[in-house]
Amino acid sequence: MRAAWMSVAALAAAVALSACTEKPQTSGQRKSDQAPYATANSSNTAGTWKEGDSKAWERQLSTRAQNGQNEYSRASAP
């Protein structure tokens, strides 16, 4: 009788602990190894920027950082 209870307890512990295993982590797709300025695939790009033009990309990021994301310049405007 004691062996039966031990078997049931071991089985219950195995079932309870099986839920604690980690699921395998798989990525959805491979990441692109291209530079960010070389991949224009959306309609959210600026009109003056051409794909592969790194200088225009850097100018656009600098302009956006100064005009749109700089709280000091935005707060001083009346």
UniProtKB/TrEMBL annotation:
Native source species: Rubrivivax rivuli
Protein name: Lipoprotein
Keywords in alphabetical order: Signal
Top-level taxon in the UniProt lineage: Bacteria
Region spans: Disordered: 21-78
Signal peptide annotation: 1-18
Biased composition (Polar residues): 60-78
